[in-house]
Amino acid sequence: MRIGLLxxxxxxxxxxxxxxxxxRLVRGLAxxxxxxxxxxxxxxxESEGLLALPPQVRRVRTAPLWTADEDGVVHGRRxxxxxxxxxxxxxxxxxxxxxxxxxxxxxxxxxxxxxxxADRFASALYGLAELARDEGGLVGALRSExxxxxxxxxCRAPGALRxxxxxxxxxxxxxxxxxxxxxxxxxxxxxEDDGLGSAxxxxxxxxxxxxxxxxxxxxFTGVPLLVTEYGVRLRTHYLAPQDSSPAVRSLLAAFHxxxxxxxxxxxxxxxPGNAHAxxxxxxxxxxxxxxxxxxxxxxxxxxAEVGESPERAAxxxxxxxxxVEPAKDLxxxxxxxAEIRKEEPGTRLRVLGAPTGPEGAAYLxxxxxxxxxxxxxxxxxxxxxxxxPVSFEELGGPETPTLADAYASGxxxxxxSVVEGFPIGLVEAMFCxxxxxxxxVGAVVEVIGGTGLVVPPRNPRALAEACVALLRxxxxxxxxxxxxxxxxxxxxxxxxxxxxxxxxYLEIVSRSPARHAPLDDTGxxxxxAVPAEAHLPGRWTAPASRMVARGGPGWAAGPxxxxxxxxxxxxxxx
Length: 574
Hints:
- By secondary structure, this protein is an alpha/beta fold.
- It is 43% helix and 11% strand.
- The protein has a six-stranded parallel sheet. The protein has a six-stranded parallel sheet with strand order 9-8-7-10-11-12, sandwiched between helices.
């Protein structure tokens, strides 16, 4: 089959944050044709180039999210009125008091039902997409004074959210600019028969803006949509640091919540990467019947040698591996290590990883200063050079050239995070057969599954006690490490990931009517390959409880009539 893979800031760019699992998935789907549709986040990302692509990738179409040029189209009176109606409806929905997940906001008046508001949002969104397809000029319209005035009217309307009613002119300009940025995929030329319309299935590598082209492909051409979220994009938006006013945060949160709800409603299947992401999706309105947990696929081969040789570990060394940033809470780890040193004075801690951005560099400097304060350099004798029991290193050096070497250097691997999605580093330690001590955040408990010790976050004493318990019991470390490796090889390999998605692809396509004329062996159209009811509007699949289109004949409500030679009309109406 032909798959349209949709990404944002990830695969196939060299610096893409979702590139690794997407690349492994694409390489494992050699029997399919892959068309990649990628949205780039910055000019620098585009300048770094693309990864080496396997032969099953037929083509790559890219579009920048960081900029958008106006196409020079000037709307006439009818197009301007059409834009004002759609954009005004979109703004009115964002200012309403009904939350996308069914809760209620702080509105001053009665609210519409959640389903009605969801339909209004969808109608406005698709109306803007159809305007861009029919007339063009959407980028300029989204940047126009008409858009700002529509936002202002919606914010001042009776029943609007209190935070929206307090909006200022600068806030309106900010919200209009952010919405224009998020709606840029509506102006792309990806939705014709030579683009996503030719795909049998659209697979979005994340939610949010990345899934928006798949949503439009489903609207315009009926291509089924599969959405994978290893980190829920809506959760990321909620947790991101905000420096804007409450009105701006409220309106943008409403937009992203509505978009997520519409994506979840229209997707044929949703594949969260863990139970933590699954709970977020359900809270944001996803139908449980559509959810299928698929763990990320990771390459176990680089860690095989270390995993099969547990004796390589230094028995008195703790290892932390990851990106250095405040969410990893290395400060708590250092305070826990101070407690560990009181019980096991010969223990050492190796922190391996690079900082992420200026904030990460400042945090690393703070941790290094704290380590120097907590652990003065120690020397074995009066004439020896002092040494600090905590070392901060980067991967790729002479002592730790690879990730496997990093995990091999310690007897216990530690994760001290306060915020975590799917803990990739924890799975790598499990591949290496290492006993682990982790904080109970994100999907840690689901991943570890009883093969390691788990403690509350921001609790240095509990972290220290768990580490001391493993340092003093080598037999227990070996048992836990072997169990962790067996669990990781069973659940988190590339092979299981590819097999799961391959099965989901076949399941989705089998439930979707054929949209292209099938050909026989000679290349001629195959007659009667597409059933007649596939050309009629409405829902023609047979759910568990049989449903009939409103206004349909009463005789169509019963079970289908079975026939041997001819199929009566009653069976065609499903």
